[in-house]
């Protein structure tokens, strides 16, 4: 349970798989908050490439260098999860204007569902502004290197996954 003097934030997402853009935002959040909880959505309409457990393992590797970051998974509505663990801030990344419309809709709906929860938008480094899990998967699927876009262990997991398919 949360210590009331500490500032907690939740960084939710699909992380299918984690990219360097996500890691950049984790790092920026970990400088701003006492604790960052990276939360992987379990029940989603999307069909993920990686299982929640695989995504969790990749994220656990990614956060090894950060003392105040942990990874969990959640089901159901994000605001219910945020309230349950006693946090009040949701972190979302905005890469380009095209992200804004969807993010605005989600943030306002989450605010309507819970007035205790605020969404904080953060910008990743410009060098990651074109990066997405979807593109990383597509590049890896066609046998090209994703070096610089995701950590080496993610690249290994992607090659293994596509060899298995
Ligand atoms: O990485 P993604 O896929 O853009 O993350 C989307 C995510 C997980 C943040 C969003 O789909 C979500 O919060 N889902 C949980 C269900 C929910 O709360 N839906 C209402 C949102 S207004």
Question: Any chance you could write out the topology, listing elements then pairs?
Answer:
Blueprint: E1 8-13, H1 20-32, E2 35-41, H2 52-62, E3 69-74, H3 78-84, E4 89-93, H4 97-113, E5 118-122, H5 133-141, H6 152-164
Parallel strand pairs: 1-2, 1-4, 2-3, 4-5
4'-phosphopantetheine binds at residues 12-14, 41, 77-78, 106, 109-110.
Please give a quick description of this structure.
The chain has 165 residues and is of the alpha/beta class.
Protein architecture, described:
It is a single chain. Helices cover 42% and strands 18% of the residues. It contains six helices and five strands. The protein has a five-stranded parallel sheet with strand order 3-2-1-4-5, with helices on both faces. The N and C termini lie far apart (41 Å). The protein binds 4'-phosphopantetheine. The site of 4'-phosphopantetheine has 9 residues, from strand 1 and helix 4.
């Amino acid at each position: 349970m949360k210590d009331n003097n500490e500032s907690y934030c939740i960084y939710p997402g699909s992380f299918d798989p984690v990219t360097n853009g996500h890691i950049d935002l984790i790092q920026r959040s970990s400088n701003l908050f006492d604790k960052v909880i990276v939360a992987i959505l379990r029940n989603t309409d999307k069909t993920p490439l990686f299982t929640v457990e695989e995504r969790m393992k990749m994220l656990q590797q990614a956060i090894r260098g950060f003392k105040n970051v942990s990874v969990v998974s959640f089901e159901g509505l994000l605001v219910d999860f945020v309230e349950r663990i006693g946090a009040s801030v949701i972190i979302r990344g905005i890469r380009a204007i095209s992200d804004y419309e969807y993010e605005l809709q989600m943030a306002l709906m989450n605010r309507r569902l819970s007035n205790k929860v605020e969404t904080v938008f953060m910008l990743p480094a410009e060098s990651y502004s074109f990066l997405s899990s979807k593109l990383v998967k597509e590049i890896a699927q066609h046998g090209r290197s994703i070096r610089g876009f995701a950590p080496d262990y993610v690249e290994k997991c992607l090659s293994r996954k596509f060899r298995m398919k």
